[in-house]
TrEMBL record, chains A, B, C, D, E, F:
Ca(2+) binds at residues 57, 61, 224, 226. Mn(2+) 2 binds at residue 66. This is Catalase. Binds 1 Ca(2+) ion per subunit. Keywords: Calcium, Manganese, Metal-binding. It comes from Streptomyces carminius. Pfam families: Mn_catalase (PF05067). GO terms for molecular function: metal ion binding. The lineage of its organism: Bacteria, Bacillati, Actinomycetota, Actinomycetes, Kitasatosporales. Mn(2+) 1 binds at residues 35, 69, 150, 183. InterPro entries: Ferritin-like (IPR012347), Ferritin-like_SF (IPR009078), Mn_catalase (IPR007760), Mn_catalase_dom (IPR039377). Residues 236-288 are annotated as: Disordered. Belongs to the manganese catalase family. The keyword Manganese applies. Its cofactor is Ca(2+); Mn(2+).
Length: 302, 302, 302, 302, 302, 302
């Protein structure tokens, strides 16, 4: 259960309105690596966490913080839209280049839909969606995803930081940048912790490493004609998991046969000339129908 | 420019059809962490790579390989759908539990749309989309994303590996698992290489670290009531980037003021009682209109 | 079955082209509360209506009208795009601020995809989709949704009304605004009619009111620190359905236990330390397998 | 800023796992009228609220509660998936009708992506998206939308309530149903409060009522051949806003001219035979270019 | 403007309910090539048609018919859901294989959202969206798209025709199949008519044929290793537009230089080692700023 | 399996940067008819092709070429963004109309997400998705779709060709236009080839032509009041498939009964007054339950 204070985690006060910047900040609200993503990602990870104690507690701390970041950004966006030329006509834009410059760069939906406020969308007006939030139950996989998310997030914040001179916006972004720095360091430390606790190692998931085709687990298939890749750390020496030696297949040949689909089900009307043989009748991965099953049930030893 | 051989990178021959598994494998074709994602992600990263030589060459090698993985999976899916009960009526399903078991778990669009073949969609029929592919131009940010993608990908392949007994499918998945192992190791090595080459460090992007509010760059805000998080590597000691000491804010208070939007533009008809004061007229981040600009242009020293 | 006349329900003749306004009007064509939504919403409600006579007839009257509104808006959009700077080059925009002001605010797809016409998309180019249309079969639930849709729709039309001085556009919007006024009144009257006819009451659905946990059916959980909410009509006195007295829980405590997921299925490779106990084997809501069922079938009294 | 306790608002303990029900409950998590929608809808409404005091405080109370509902549902879903046949092969499903019945009705992504937990998606695996959340800044429009959302939400919860016999699930749903009852009553009371406070009236927005074409603001256009609609409360008598008398246009004729697009821009290659006349050259809603503007700037009286 | 009769264009009466088939028919309602697509596609084409008379009239005739097809299908879907096991619990499904077979194959949203009726979605529950509808203003391009849409549509109807034995459903599908036959013939005839009327020819658009690089307008680039393609009608002889001779480039070499991006803007923090040279400062396709423009305005001959 | 050379199929070198054009070109990268669509469409068609030899080989040749077109366009987009005003502040835009003109027309995500490069999205920032790619297994249906795709594609390229004066961009587009000309001719020739090979005829699929209601397979239902459609080639004379004579139903009457849904399942809480009779209990298309089936299994002759 959650509780809320109307005080913001950090101030969000622009010096002046700037509707063009208000549009760009939508990327940090509802973009693929915006605050809605990390808040939902961490919430679902926390609820899904199967290890009691410090991991779950940590994830829920950060998740709860991130909801407050959406709030902070949404407040900033609304303030940047104050008195903005949302309701100016094109005629005004055409006759005043300053208005024109701004109107072209605005998000019309911030005015038409939200009445001058933030939307759960990105800077091109595409709505946030649930496929952005990663929560697999495997903490190593998810912490890798968290490092990646915080890295893209800080990168985007840094880019937008350069697109404004407003001291109030920059002040808030300095807080966001700092938190993104912390969160990158934090998830990297959490990865280290998983290893110290012997819960996970380097490769996700820490299993099937002997079952997989080990001979293909460390070789670079050289399939593009740039030839400098053979010089990298990924091309020779031990692999980060310590389990292989990197190699290069400089002239790789396909290992499989020629690709072909099976003969088609004639009732699906694929164009067909019989070249792949007779279509099979339904085969469901078993030969036994109901009768077979009943028989089997009555004679379980078969 | 690309070239193609009809031979598969690795074999994709199931022992028997299995349309339920064919649906699940759609996740590896067109899911958020399927082969379409990594192929498009690496292609766009390669085309966007601003460092000549080994990084770009490496990315293009792997990108080119991944297109072949989509091909391998798509071929496997079609073969698993051979002779499947796509065209059976519900009446048959109802009277034969074996058919019923399979029909419920099938993807109807593999039959109705594709005629018994793979779709560019995930295991719930949701189409692959471009927001899945990450290519920021910052190699460290993108390599973190690549590790994360390969980790989720191998995890999903491993889960599906446990959902089948078919030796042919398992053989192909052993190849996929091995490649995902390699690709995780590879991107981790590439991160190391970026550091060795002094192109990037630990935190993304490697800038604004002094400008950001450093006092907030290493502290855990304890906002959820589980209290074990203070015991982790993320709570004390040096940060992975070596630039901070982790701390815990055990009873954090908001630093900002009470959140409030500005007074609304009256032409947008927000419900308003005047409590936030008079709405401002348009303010575009500048006071100068056209006349001001012309004046400024003629008298640039003002 | 439908019939069509090429005459518009109302005129749609702008005085002058205005491609920036043409983009904004896309919100009324294909936005979440545009004409495509209400036409599809009412069509599916009408087809799904299980009460013969006046309700179904009413819904189909309005649904049929709304298709004509899409037509009216689409015609207006095309006319606003006449002779527009769709095919001007950036060079022209850069050298003529008037063109520049317009080009930035245009929807490029109206030119590139539609050749100067309306699209089934909103003002940010996001396509209309079927999740917008609500048709549940419960008329009270759907009429509430219809009031809400017409309210948002009239609000958006009113906002855009303020963004133009074109007398022709304003004339058409005066018709749209009037119809939205009527449709709000209409659906409110229809809600009243449902009550008069004793088909529905206030709360949707009109059932399970005794079965639900009545003690939680009228209390405000005070979870945010603003303390003025206790003064509203929702905080004390009888509820609109006459079935409860509003109360306030000013310091609410969670009623549930600490959230935790179950022990994970080991074959899904969640990170796990055993802290939630042994994973269960499959349990499908029943203990009987096939043998049990056959036994049960033969001995139905068990 | 938010705080969190790991205790759930209400218990979420099923008696037994039931993966088919776990899929259906996704509708209440991430569907168009699920808990993610109302939590995001209320959060954005609260942040966008331009009236200090009881309205904002109320919205934030409810918004904060709803995040906890997502948590409650997500926990329930994970528990319903315990020990589920996620990792069974099709072969098992085919040979055991009980497993087959369940596997067909499961959401494969709950296993493959989430490792046996809830997803931010609906019951068909379609991800939650930001277009679901309505927050216009007009409180009457938004409270109508809130009534509608809670009505659909309670309707869906009631439907799912009938799809299970599990006493634990039913117990939680009894809480959800009760809260949905309260929230419907609450938003209806809030609508009444807006009227008492003279902030809004019946029609949204409370403006332009004289400017719109009043003669079209109260008439039913009879466009479908069912003839019972003329008997309803929407067909005669005063309108709910008290501002009109309902009427019926029993044989309505179109008021507009024949629809036609303008002559096309020849550079966009529409098929054209000249029948609509000569295409116009660019006309931007103004005749003045840069020179005109400079002239105007220097001679502001023109 | 539209009018409606409640009589269906053709009967839609199944002999018996069949919820599995009801799900599959969603593909014909709201799939990429379902009736919603063609109705919206033809409506927008008709509204966008720049040729007066027979083309526009034809498109509007067919568009109006197609809305009635959505109605027919939606009615059929609701009837197939009559008395269906929507509200059965998993327990029943597990104990009765006949119920289990059906429940797995059902669309849960038809029950939970629509209360036993059709949805504006496809057979995997993905909502219809506006990107499916093609209306470019170029009639030849659009008629090609119409032939393609009707072809996919009849193919899908034919596939579903084979998935049912219900005489009522088959009767309706025989009507749909016939209309799809007519519509394919119709659009092919309309293509012929465009040529007879000298409005369009074979290639879309009928322009820039001399300006394009003609030497690349008729050659097959042989980039995949299957070598049978050189034997087709597309490899030699005159092209269908009569303007070229087909040829084969059997061993094609790239014509362009090595791909490389430009040096990055340093404020966007791409990883960069300087290997592509110094980043340029902003260059907007022009060298002139405001001063230049004012100068140009005053001295237009420069 | 694929291989790659870093050399582009054709040059992609603009004379100057132009970020507005870079946005428009996104339509050709990731729009519904952009290069991502045709590359994925042809790849899935090729993998799904059930006819050995020239058809499959052809499709794979073209598919492989199209991946290279995505590369060419992506490279062009990055170059057009060189030194662009991505990181300028609104203040600069407002004070320099040339910058303002450009900033309004830019795609902010090309800077914020991609760091100055192409995205897998269209010109309104909507991501490419898998529903765009058509691959049905029926070659005639798919070749019709391919003609349509190449026609829309060339049309869009031609429109953009007119939006730039840059000789480098125009040079690349001349290549694209030529390839689109070839591909239209090619797929038209391939349709001819299918007929020569007696694999398909005119209507898709080439079946059920006698089973469908032939009396409805050639008649124009005149449902819109424009009356010129009766004069077209689609209104009289033989149909293109030679199997019918076109006719016109000038005053068509519906053939079906009044549309009505069945009585609703009471547990789904549709509003209902009993007017459609008693709801049926579950009827699954069969009367036999498990006992019936076991009985049938033991006594197969019944």
């Amino acid at each position: 259960m959650f509780r809320h204070t109307q005080r913001l985690q950090f101030d969000a006060k622009p010096e002046k309105p700037d509707p063009v910047l208000a549009r760009k900040l939508q990327e940090l609200v509802g973009g693929a690596y915006g605050e809605m993503t990390v808040s939902m990602q961490y919430l679902f990870q926390g609820w899904n966490c199967r290890v009691k104690g410090k991991y779950k507690d940590l994830i829920m701390d950060i998740a709860t913080e991130e909801i407050g970041h959406v709030e902070m950004l949404a407040t900033m966006v609304a303030r940047l839209l104050e008195g903005a030329p949302n309701t100016e006509t094109t005629k005004v834009a055409v006759s005043d280049p300053a208005v024109g410059a701004v109107m072209g760069g605005m998000d019309p939906q911030q005015a038409i839909i939200a009445g001058g406020a933030a939307l759960p969308s990105d800077s091109n007006g595409y709505p946030w969606n649930g496929r952005y939030a990663v929560a697999s139950g495997n903490l190593l996989a998810d912490f890798y995803a968290n490092v990646a998310a915080e890295a893209q997030s800080r990168l985007q914040a840094a880019r937008i930081y350069n697109m404004t001179d407003d001291p109030g916006v920059k002040d808030m972004l300095k807080f966001n940048l700092a938190r993104d720095t912390y969160h990158q360091n934090l998830w990297l430390a959490a990865i280290e912790q998983l290893r110290e606790d012997n819960l996970e190692d380097v490769v996700v998931p820490g299993t099937l490493t002997d079952e997989e085709h080990r001979e293909h687990a460390a070789s670079l298939w050289h399939l593009s004609d740039g030839d400098a890749a053979a010089a990298g750390l990924w091309a020779s020496g031990p692999t980060p998991d310590g389990d292989h030696e990197f190699t290069v297949l400089s002239d790789p040949e396909p290992l499989g046969e020629k690709a072909s689909p099976p003969p088609p089900d004639p009732k699906l009307f694929a164009t067909y000339d019989g070249s792949y043989g007779e279509p099979k009748s339904p085969a469901l991965g078993t030969e036994v129908g109901l009768k077979g099953k009943i028989r089997g049930a009555l004679s379980p030893d078969e």
